[in-house]
Design goal:
Diaminopimelate Epimerase, Chain A, domain 1, DAP_epimerase_DapF, binds the ligand N[C@@H](CCC[C@H](N)C(=O)O)C(=O)O, 5-stranded mixed β-sheet, about 40% strand
Length: about 290
């Protein structure tokens, strides 16, 4: 009998599978069928909840977030998923966290600390880079991105533990009208695919603000358009921070279709060792899989 939970972080939704001792054979077919919104439970991603020791992962963190996109492909990291993962470990009583305490979790992108403050969870995603380094920052872009019906637009690649390309649009009407039903075409094509974030800055960029403010939509590698992407909001804030130069803040609010997330960046315009993502995590249901 396999028990599962359904949860979301700003409406980026996940099926979590209990597998503390690493007994489930999680095939791409099983992931796709669980994530299917008509014939399955429905989710943007599937997370196997497994002890690091049972999954051959870094044992310095007891629990491994085994994250998979809805198309069955593995990803290095999921920012929203990490908060939901820790909320679920707490719910199951598999970990305990006093208010303000941190828990290290293992991911394919490395071990990362998650802190709980009340209902809010903060993960430090660690090292990041604007992929082309200072030349890409100076030029403001290193790739072009083409959406249906639009000419190619400049995009800036940002590497967290997973890949991102960020595109800025001039206004929220253009953002709302964007067709994300098919993957945007990125040129040159990143070797391992990429997540694409499209942003409109909402704060006054002509003066230095304490808090940057972006509106964002996202097309996720392996999942299509989702209502939120945590690592995507961090990439978006890092790109906007690079574009903004001296006037750009380190603290950002990012509004996505599913809610609001906050980002705190550290480092130069092109690289750093810390980028924190804060937001909610909700567990909505628990149940048992019926196996045929
Ligand atoms: N939604 C996630 C990111 C999930 C992985 C992504 N689709 C990829 O393939 O890199 C988030 O909240 O960060």
């Amino acid at each position: 009998m396999t028990t599962f939970a359904k949860g979301h972080g700003t409406e980026n939704d996940f099926v979590l599978l209990d597998d503390p001792e690493g007994r489930i054979d999680l095939t791409p077919e099983l992931i796709r069928s669980l994530a299917d919104r008509r014939a399955g439970l429905g989710a943007d991603g599937v997370i196997r909840v497994v002890r690091s020791a049972a999954a051959g992962q870094d044992p310095s963190a007891e629990w491994f977030m085994d994250y998979w996109n809805s198309d069955g492909s593995a990803a290095e990291m999921c920012g929203n998923g990490s908060r939901v993962f820790v909320a679920y470990l707490l719910r199951r009583g598999w970990v305990s966290l006093e208010d303000g305490e941190e828990l290290n979790i293992a991911t394919r992108g490395g071990v990362m600390p998650v802190r709980r403050r009340g209902e809010l969870f903060t993960i430090d995603l660690g090292a990041w880079k604007v992929a082309g380094g200072p030349p890409a920052v100076a030029a403001g872009s290193d790739v072009t991105v083409t959406f249906p019906g639009l000419p190619p637009l400049p995009g800036l690649s940002v590497s967290l533990s997973n890949p991102h390309v960020v595109v800025a649009l001039p206004d929220v009407e253009t953002l709302a009208a964007l067709d994300l039903s098919v993957p945007p075409i990125v040129d040159p094509a990143p070797p391992n695919g990429t997540n694409v974030e499209i942003v409109v800055p909402l704060h006054d960029q002509s003066v230095r603000s304490e808090l940057g403010h972006l509106k964002m939509r996202v097309h996720e590698r392996g999942s299509g358009e989702t209502r939120s992407c945590g690592t995507g909001t961090v990439a978006a804030a890092l790109a906007a921070r690079a574009w903004g130069g001296n006037l750009a803040p380190d603290h950002w609010r990012v509004d996505v279709p599913g809610g609001t997330l906050y980002v705190d960046a550290e480092g130069t315009a092109s690289e750093g060792d810390s980028a924190k993502l804060s937001g909610p995590a909700v567990i909505v249901a628990e149940g048992e899989l019926v196996t045929s």
